[in-house]
TrEMBL record, chains A, B:
Keywords: Aminotransferase, Pyridoxal phosphate, Transferase. This is PLP-dependent aminotransferase family protein. GO terms for molecular function: transaminase activity. Pfam families: Aminotran_1_2 (PF00155).
Length: 404, 404
């Protein structure tokens, strides 16, 4: 009955786009390729513990007082310098806002920009959490497909001509979630030109940019920004630790002011003690050296995943071969409904999970793809899980139920 | 130009309701009665540092992984027990959500309930940050005045009869921000009866409930809830430390599910490492003993404020005499515009600040009140600042500009 009092944005009959991510399988043999969690065995726990102590010892009680909506200025300066060095973005601490993970940054941009029905372009497939955040502000979506070098700009321009009111494009240009695809430098430049011509904002979400297995990060889309139209978002969740809940964004002018205003009203400010600890960690440790260790692990895990896809999946399946990040994307023949398979066959029989493609499409209308995340698993476990999953997919493609 | 792309909720021409709180005066003699910050000299820094170490040592790397949207279950259980003991609310950890301060809890409730134009009742004056959070969802406000024992329920019922669509009432029942007023137990019961009769939700925001100088906390409004219509919000910012950014809410049924859904989309989850540290702090320390220390200090500071109001303010001023919390509310004759006075006289000449009443009214239309916060200042400083402020107010009431 109280449901009648909910805002229409809640739509209690539709599950959260994020709820599909966390499927629990009570079987101890269960292997999850679903959640996009970093590998916690690589977390620099001792160094971060030391950093908390340093921050508290250095600043004392004042560290625990209300601080600022924008966040710790020293940490903001370090992040501005970092995206300057690795992404060629010329910016300063004054243009950085620290957020509660990259997720809050996306939500704040949506909140600052979108009236109900406003038109938004997204890559399809796209990050499920971005859809959840954008959904809160009830946009009209236009999906634009991906090519091997990122967003299909021809399709985007056709869409922009048909729908000149589009005010926001959301993109994950680096080791895209969920496909692992990276946008070429040429397309980054062209995308900014399109934004200038068609008067829209680009939300560049780049949490995986440091995790190219054999390459350094590409220049950010934001580095080509000439009119303050690009909002750059990143996070320390994937290269340091998620539970520090520290994301950040870079924006300019009116957009920066608007985001800061809605952020202050949303939660006043993020966790000052955590930001001070991260700042102390960065003073005492070489984050890039830590990232190199991560890259070595994720390269090996990705190789195990790709090898297993080749070895165990049916020939009818196609998949991406990521050069960085956490994810591989598999496409099955259109007749295969991976959503239904997960519930009725894969989980109960093979005790393996993945995220079905429906979650990554605004209309939830594509049923034959899956995101596989390899970041949290060892090569052996990846091989074992993919063997079981591959058998299921072969059976599904052949329309035959496997016997266990 | 990019301003054209902002959502109407941002309204860049209107300053944030919260921006009036933080007026900077470069003069070293400046005394601020503006910001509602707790007294940081009372923060249990050593115990909290120890708690961070305990949490990290006990849980290791897994502490820094993604955890849950609802938040640390041990801490939720402790908070559920706490509001059971002190507020007589029968609830469990399953009904608690940990939030980024009480501010996020308010914003999440607004997000879960309000479509643009939806009708909301608020106390006038009311907490400036609640207005900022509610403003994001563009409600139609109805203000209901306060009496010595809290919300004027006769006016509320008249308002409900005229506007039966009102779906939410926001109230700060304990040591109200900004007036210091506490709602009587009888009114709490009657308010729930009104909510049942007129089908609205009560958002009970109670961050100061533990800080009654000479009394224990009253039963929460939520303790009288018979239909799951009351959402209880509190925070550790005022009784522990703000920079831990830990608020919490208690809700039931459909409302709980809706809030959890919009919360997951907003920032996935709050800072796990901080929640584990708070949980470890509560295992090793007696929070109620700490609260007793706080009460002794705030009692003394409040007494200094009330004595200074009697000694230095013009007879034409009326003021509240709080029995707990951080705030006193002063009303000047209607001819006095405290907003203009602050900028043109009080700050430049007396180097004292306060928050003008406009910030606490949805229509920003009441100019002759001020919130004075005494929580961060010693009795000597309160006396000195109030002497200077009182001289300004006497001059304003007499229409004479004081000479310095």
């Amino acid at each position: 009955m109280l449901n009648d009092l909910l805002a229409t944005r809640v739509n209690p009959d539709v599950p959260s786009a994020l709820s599909g991510l966390f499927v629990n399988d009570p079987d101890p043999r269960a292997i999850s390729f679903a959640a996009g969690s970093p590998n916690e065995s690589l977390f620099p726990v001792a160094a971060v513990k030391e950093a908390f102590n340093t921050a508290i010892d250095t600043q004392g009680a004042h560290l625990f007082q209300y601080q600022s909506t924008q966040g710790n200025p020293d940490l903001r300066a370090k992040l501005a310098a970092r995206i300057g060095k690795w992404g060629r973005v010329t910016t300063t601490a004054d243009h950085v806002i620290l957020t509660v993970g990259g997720q809050q940054a996306i939500e704040l941009v949506a909140k600052a920009l979108l009236n109900p029905g406003d038109e938004v372009a997204v890559e399809v497939p796209t990050y499920v959490g971005a859809l959840a955040a954008l959904d809160l502000y009830q946009p009209t979506y236009y999906g634009v497909g991906l090519q091997a070098d990122g967003l299909d700009l021809d399709v985007l321009e056709t869409t922009l001509k048909r729908h000149p009111g589009i005010k926001l494009l959301y993109t994950v240009p680096d080791f895209h979630n969920p496909t692992g695809i990276t946008m070429s430098v040429a397309k980054r430049q062209q995308l900014v030109a399109l934004a200038n011509r068609y008067d829209f904002i680009i939300l560049e979400d780049s949490p995986y940019r440091d995790l190219g297995y054999d390459q350094g990060p590409l220049p950010a889309i934001k580095s080509f920004d000439t009119e303050g139209r690009v909002i750059f978002v990143s996070s320390l969740s994937k290269i340091l630790m998620p539970a520090l809940r520290t994301g950040w964004l870079v924006a300019d002018g009116d957009l920066l002011a608007a985001i800061l205003k809605v952020r202050q009203a949303s939660d006043l400010e993020a966790t000052g003690v955590t930001h001070a600890a991260i700042n102390a960690y960065l003073d005492a440790n070489d984050l890039d050296a830590h990232v190199t260790v991560l890259k070595d692990h994720y390269r090996e895990q990705c190789a195990a995943m790709v090898a297993a896809l080749r070895a165990y999946f049916p020939d009818e399946a196609t998949f991406t071969t990521p050069a960085g990040g956490f994810f591989d994307w598999v496409t099955l023949p259109e007749s295969v409904d991976v959503d239904q398979l997960l519930r009725t066959q894969v989980m109960p029989n093979a005790h393996v999970s993945y995220v079905p493609s429906t979650n990554f499409y605004p209309a939830r209308d594509v049923h034959n793809g899956m995101r596989l995340c390899f970041s949290g698993l060892t090569p052996d476990v990846i091989d074992a899980g993919m063997h079981r999953l591959g058998d299921q997919m072969k059976a599904a493609v052949r329309g035959v139920k496997p016997v266990f």
